[in-house]
Amino acid sequence: MQTNMPDIADTAPALQTGKLDWVGMGEIELPFIFESRDLAPVTVNAKARAFVNLHKEEAKGIHMSRLFLALDMLSTEQQVNPQTIAQALDTFITSHEGLSDKAQIEFKFELPLRRKSLLSGKTGWKSYPITLTSTLENNNIHYELTVDVTYSSTCPCSAALARQLIQNAFSEKFNQETLSQKDVREWLGTTQGIVATPHSQRSIANVKVKLNSKTDEFDVVNLINMLEEELKTPVQAAVKREDEQEFARLNGQNLMFCEDAARKIKALLEHNNYADYWLQINHYESLHAHDAVAIAVKGLTNGYQA
């Protein structure tokens, strides 16, 4: 094997001089072992993006293989946590001495979690889309964690209109002054009694949080649990009839416009120790052909923007 081979990135002149904010690779296939609080280390299949900046204006390019090999070591010899990511980011910069002083790694993957049913005690798998972005700049590391939580949203307006139709049907059926409980109970159990139901739809909360700069472990499970508990109606995994009935009850007791869901999540995030946050609520309407969307941020100067 030849040992003296040309390195164009080092020796060739740039066609056009200038600094670049980020240079690197995207869509890198990268299985790794992910570590998070209250979660046994789990192997996930990620798509990674790896970048450094290029502040040497006359440099032809960076050494992309050095980024790839640092990620490969993270994949095969380590577990992914704040400490090992910090080591990889440092390797990005030290392997590009004189070229770069910023580095970034982004992982996108599905996190499988065992989730318990509402009443029956059954369990099943649910996968949560996760994006983990880590940036090293001015010797400081910033971690951003994005999670998507899927839930059911029942329209308050539709529920009110359905109740009105049920009231009208009741008045038409029972026009006498006195009624027996048996007659009313039987009528309520028929399709003639419940003549209308409110519309609901699968909905997704996209939530991004900036972690404290001194983070020493990720806590994805707690964030997911908090969001699902606040929304009350996360989609289910294993479902028996008693679980489906309880899910219907929860939907009926937690009617939500997208504005309601956004305010609930915003209030939740305000009471937790996140450096910043951004959220988008998406209600994929069953009535309309379009979606209902609400967005909120913490509102910091130079923070996330809506």
Question: How would you portray this structure in words?
Answer:
The protein contains 8 helices and 9 strands. By secondary structure, it is α+β, with helices and mostly antiparallel strands. The chain has a 9-stranded mixed beta sheet. Strand 4 and strand 5 form a beta hairpin. The N and C termini lie far apart (54 Å). The model has no long low-confidence stretch (mean pLDDT 94).
Record the SSE blueprint:
Layout: H1 8-11, E1 20-36, E2 39-54, H2 64-77, E3 79-80, H3 82-94, E4 102-116, E5 123-137, E6 140-154, H4 156-173, H5 181-188, E7 200-210, H6 220-231, H7 241-253, H8 258-270, E8 276-283, E9 292-297
Parallel strand pairs: 1-3
Antiparallel strand pairs: 1-2, 2-4, 4-5, 5-6, 6-7, 7-8, 8-9
Helix pairs in contact: 2-3, 6-8
Features:
nine-stranded mixed beta sheet; alpha+beta; 31% helix; 9 strands; 306 residues; 8 helices
